From TrEMBL:
Protein name as catalogued: DUF5683 domain-containing protein
InterPro entries found in the cross-reference section: DUF5683
Residue ranges constituting the DUF5683 domain according to the UniProt record: 68-213
Species this protein is from: Olleya aquimaris
Signal as UniProt keyword: yes
Keywords annotated in UniProt: Signal
This protein's record includes keyword Signal: yes
Pfam families reported in the protein's UniProt record: DUF5683
Signal peptide residue numbers: 1-21
Length: 213
């Protein structure tokens, strides 16, 4: 009876030791594919981290403070002195264009006015009975009348062009001041972006055009 109890006790101790050994022994996975997946992901993540990330320039762009008086001030400066509004907007290359256009139109106005006065004075002297005008034996009375009409029309046209250039100089300064403060919103933008595909975990570089109403 004692021998049976001893044998039973030894069997129980052996089974207990075997169960403990099974629990503490680590399970080895023989599947090589499960071991390679983490390595592949780690390599791809390393490649992605080595690539430069493109950051949207509009995010880093410092927003400008809007000054509502700036366009009015630029227009006022150009009204006082043509080209001064362009200098206020720092568009210095426009100043020679403004003065060249104004100078040309003013020159033609002065020249046509001069020729008109010459033809008119000669015609008046002929009407008064004098025959010593500078156009004597060159132009008839009818020719002097037509010359007066032509030079007067050209003189008035030159004056209108001069006024138009002067007004355009003011409008240009005002519009430029508005555009210098204009900030393009996200409703209309063209910017690069960087995206990681979910399937292959690889980076893609693209170009996005946003146009919203």
């Amino acid at each position: 009876m004692l021998n049976k109890a001893s044998i039973f006790t030894l069997i129980c101790c052996f089974l207990s030791a075997f169960c403990i050994a099974q629990e503490t022994e680590p399970v080895k996975d023989t599947d090589t594919t499960t071991q390679e997946i983490p390595k592949v992901l780690k390599q791809r993540q390393q490649k992605i981290s080595d690539k430069p990330v493109i950051i949207d320039s509009t995010v880093l762009k410092e927003s400008r403070i809007y000054n509502p008086l700036s366009p009015s001030r630029a227009a006022f400066y150009s009204a006082v002195l043509p080209g001064l509004g362009q200098a206020y907007n720092r568009k210095y290359w426009k100043i020679p264009i403004v003065y060249a256009a104004l100078g040309t139109s003013i020159y033609f106005y002065i020249e046509n006015n001069k020729q008109y006065n010459r033809a008119r004075d000669a015609y008046k002297r002929r009407l008064a009975g004098f025959e010593d005008d500078e156009f004597q034996n060159k132009f008839t009375d009818d020719a002097l009348r037509e010359a007066q009409k032509t030079f007067r029309r050209n003189k008035e046209l030159s004056l209108l062009i001069t006024v138009g250039i002067y007004a355009l100089n003011i409008i240009d300064a005002n519009v430029d001041a508005h555009l210098l403060q204009y900030n393009i919103s996200n409703d209309l933008s063209l910017k690069p972006h960087y995206k990681i595909e979910e399937f292959d975990n690889l980076g893609r570089v693209g170009l996005t055009l946003n146009f919203q109403f």
